[in-house]
């Protein structure tokens, strides 16, 4: 929501400046861009340099490489286009992307490139039509965003032409204020808005607070139509005038004014520190650390404002200053680009740490020979390229992380197939959300379930992240309706049994309390040393609800079985993330390396072949 407010304010301020200078006949592109560079570039360069230094000290090569990529695109104001391509399931989580927040600055700068040129042209050649042109552009931009939303929520969120309407909302208000002295209709609208300004500003502020509290419920369909509310509320608060209660009492308070002065450097710094905390602490950030990071953000925002922004803003906005700041930004982009090009400089770590990180990183990837043709990552894996094996294992990323070993270590004479779609559940018609990206994933799962019912497979294995199944959990259906987990689970599994197949449920492997990077101390500077194991009792508690649910279901449905293969990663006392000889068994808190997958897979095949009559061979699983 902060981005929506930021865009509306930015559009209003910039448009107001351009309209006044055009009317006075003193508008200059050089002057405009020199002032923007003087305002934006120096603090951005400082943040990128300091953030890169911090990354070199605390991030793994994989994380540091990603930081370099983000920094380069952020310095060139193209981070929004990179983000529009979407984020893969095993990609670094959003909260660990140090410079990801610069996408919104990219949108603003792209607007700064287009809007002055368009306005200058319209001012000269469409004298009386500028207002209508601005309305048309805003409407078209909003329409494009609504068009993209069901196709690709990432594109709808990050593309500049899907966000220009929000800046355009501020532009239109600036144009209204600009025309008010000479246009009776504009003057009347402005006067009415200010007459009821206190009520409108309070209503807008309350609406923004309500939106903030309910954002999580609509985030899957955001921005979309929902983005209208924060954008219009922001415009209403500005339009309500200086004497409106919110503006006079709250926003004119000296604390609010000072925060306003610090808003740009605070925007630049806040995510750098928060994301580094997420990375270093493996996503588990206590409230105390969050407040400490906010405090650091305020401190560095003050440093930026006092010692960089203010002195440079006092300089004349000349072509020379524009050239120097632009060169500085390009050098910064080059430096961060080198970080990405050289894979995050793994030489910062010892050879043993590099070897462990290489295993963790490489084992996150599924070998290309196990991918179906013309499919994207994390969707389809099948050794035979079609679902015609005797055994078919399906599920989410917890099927994917054992996929290649499951196929390679199948007993002699057993044909096996795998289908894995990260972030899904193998339930007919059920979707995890209505975002376009998730609907594609869930759609693939629905296709494979349909293919499963028609396949010649004799045994279907379900390997998924279930947590503790709850029959009363409300689930979303692809047709927009709702059902319960119990109803859709039973519908799906009974359909598989009815198609003449045997059904096997796998209890999930142990979920660990820490990332491998912290567990094994794989950072250049390790601020925390994570625990590398849980007790066997803790795992039994983790899996108890899942096993009890499956066990009860199996007892009611002949031809189905439940296997607890996760114990393959445990002994009588502990379940460890590291093998006895110090090799990583996990890639993160719950996905396994090939070495961990080997232990799980061997346990699966051993238990399957021990069930009388389940497979065409009952020979014990050979050691391969």
Cα-to-Cα separation, first versus last residue: 55 Å
The portion of residues assigned to helices is: 55-70%
So what's the overall shape?
globular
Mean pLDDT: 88
What's the number of extended β-strand segments?
10
Structural class: alpha/beta
Q: In percent, how much strand structure appears in the residues?
A: 5-15%
* Rg (C-alpha, Å): 29 Å
- Strands in their spatial order, largest beta sheet: 2-1-4-7-9
Structural write-up:
- With 624 residues, the chain is α/β, with parallel strands linked by helices.
- 58% of the residues lie in helices and 6% in strands.
- β5 and β6 form a beta hairpin.
- α1 (2-24) crosses α11 (228-239), α3 packs antiparallel against α15 and α6 (130-148) packs antiparallel against α8 (164-179).
- The protein is globular.
- Residues 374-379 have low confidence and may be disordered.
Question: What labels would you give this structure?
Answer:
globular, 624 residues, single chain, three-stranded antiparallel β-sheet, 23 helices, alpha/beta, five-stranded parallel β-sheet
Task: Give a brief outline of the structure.
With 624 residues, the protein is of the alpha/beta class.
């Amino acid at each position: 929501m902060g981005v929506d407010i930021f865009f509306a304010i930015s559009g209003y301020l910039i448009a107001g400046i351009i309209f006044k200078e055009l009317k006075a006949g003193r508008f200059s592109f050089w002057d405009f861009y020199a002032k923007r560079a003087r305002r934006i570039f120096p603090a951005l360069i400082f943040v990128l340099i300091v953030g890169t230094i911090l990354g070199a000290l605390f991030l793994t090569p994989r994380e540091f490489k990603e930081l370099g990529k983000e920094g380069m695109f952020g310095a060139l104001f193209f981070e929004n286009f990179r983000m529009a391509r979407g984020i893969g399931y095993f990609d670094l989580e959003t909260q660990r992307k140090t410079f990801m927040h610069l996408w919104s600055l990219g949108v603003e700068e792209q607007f700064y490139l287009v809007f002055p040129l368009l306005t200058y042209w319209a001012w000269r050649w469409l004298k009386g039509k500028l207002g209508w042109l601005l309305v048309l552009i805003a409407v078209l931009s909003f329409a494009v965003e609504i068009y993209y939303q069901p196709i690709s929520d990432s594109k709808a969120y990050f593309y500049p032409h899907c966000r220009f309407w929000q800046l355009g909302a501020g532009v239109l208000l600036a144009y209204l204020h600009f025309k008010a002295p000479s246009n009776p209709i504009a003057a009347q609208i402005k006067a009415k808005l200010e007459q009821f300004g206190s009520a409108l500003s309070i209503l807008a502020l309350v609406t923004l607070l309500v939106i903030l509290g309910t954002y999580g419920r609509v985030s899957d369909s955001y921005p979309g139509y929902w983005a209208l509310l924060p954008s219009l509320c922001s415009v209403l608060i500005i339009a309500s005038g200086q004497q409106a209660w919110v503006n006079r009492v709250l926003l004119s308070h000296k604390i609010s004014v000072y925060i306003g002065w610090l808003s740009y450097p605070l925007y630049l710094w806040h995510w750098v520190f928060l994301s580094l905390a997420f990375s270093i602490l493996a996503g588990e950030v206590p409230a105390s650390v969050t407040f400490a990071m906010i405090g650091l953000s305020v401190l560095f925002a003050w440093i930026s404002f006092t010692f960089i922004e203010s002195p440079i803003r006092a300089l004349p906005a000349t072509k020379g200053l524009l050239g120097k700041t632009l060169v500085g930004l390009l050098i910064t982009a080059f430096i961060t680009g080198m970080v990405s090009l050289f894979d995050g400089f793994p030489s910062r770590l010892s050879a043993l740490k590099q070897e462990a990180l290489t295993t963790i990183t490489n084992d996150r990837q599924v070998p290309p020979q196990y991918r179906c043709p013309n499919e994207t990552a994390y969707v389809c894996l099948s050794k035979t390229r079609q679902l015609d094996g005797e055994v078919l294992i399906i599920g989410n990323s917890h099927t994917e992380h054992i996929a290649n070993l499951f196929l390679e270590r199948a007993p002699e004479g057993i044909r096996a197939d795998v289908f894995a779609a990260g972030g899904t559940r193998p339930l007919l018609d059920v979707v995890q959300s209505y975002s376009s990206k998730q609907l594609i994933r869930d759609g693939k799962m629905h296709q494979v379930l349909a293919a499963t019912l028609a396949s010649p497979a004799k045994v279907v294995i379900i390997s998924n992240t279930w947590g503790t199944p709850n029959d009363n959990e409300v689930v979303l259906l692809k047709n927009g309706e709702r059902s319960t987990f119990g109803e859709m689970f039973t519908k799906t599994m009974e359909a598989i049994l009815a198609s003449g197949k045997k059904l096997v449920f796998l209890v999930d492997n142990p979920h660990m309390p820490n990332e491998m990077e912290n567990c094994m101390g794989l950072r250049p500077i390790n601020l925390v040393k994570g625990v590398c194991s849980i007790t066997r009792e803790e795992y039994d508690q983790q899996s108890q609800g899942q096993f009890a649910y499956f066990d009860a279901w199996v007892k009611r449905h002949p031809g189905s079985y439940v296997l607890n293969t996760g114990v393959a990663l445990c002994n009588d006392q502990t379940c460890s993330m590291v093998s006895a000889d110090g090799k990583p068994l996990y890639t993160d808190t719950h996905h396994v390396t090939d070495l961990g997958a080997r232990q799980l897979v061997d346990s699966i095949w051993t238990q399957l072949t021990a069930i009388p009559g389940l497979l065409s061979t009952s020979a014990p699983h050979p050691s391969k």
